[in-house]
Specification:
The chain has helices at 9-35, 44-99. It is mainly alpha-helical.
């Protein structure tokens, strides 16, 4: 099996993930702001659910941003691993070429 990935794939993915994190935080803030006019309009179970949403909104935002931060950390780790693997592969190839006896492979008639 061959795994071929461009050297910018993880960098691009991290940029997109950072943008998604910013977008998600912004959307949650917009949802909280949009719900503000509803405060005081509910009674009973509806009021309890609305109050719970409002109380937990910041915690939910922190949890989601924490999860996205962990994803970004994983992507950074993958980028470092692939980068060092690529460098190690190149170093191994150079070392093998240095040890190879190219004179023995010549097909000239002497």
């Amino acid at each position: 099996m061959k795994f071929d990935m461009g050297n910018q794939a993880l960098s691009t993915l991290m940029k997109q993930s950072r943008g998604s994190s910013t977008d998600l935080g912004s959307l949650i803030k917009q949802l909280i702001t949009a719900a503000q006019p509803l405060e005081g309009k509910f009674n009973g179970a509806g009021k309890a659910a609305f109050d719970q949403f409002k109380t937990n909104a910041d915690g939910i935002t922190r949890s989601l941003n924490g999860a996205l931060s962990s994803i970004l950390g994983g992507q950074q780790g993958m980028e470092a691993a692939f980068g060092s693997g690529e460098q190690e592969s190149a170093d191994n190839a150079r070392q093998a070429m240095g040890a190879a006896n190219f004179d023995a492979a010549r097909f000239s008639g002497r």
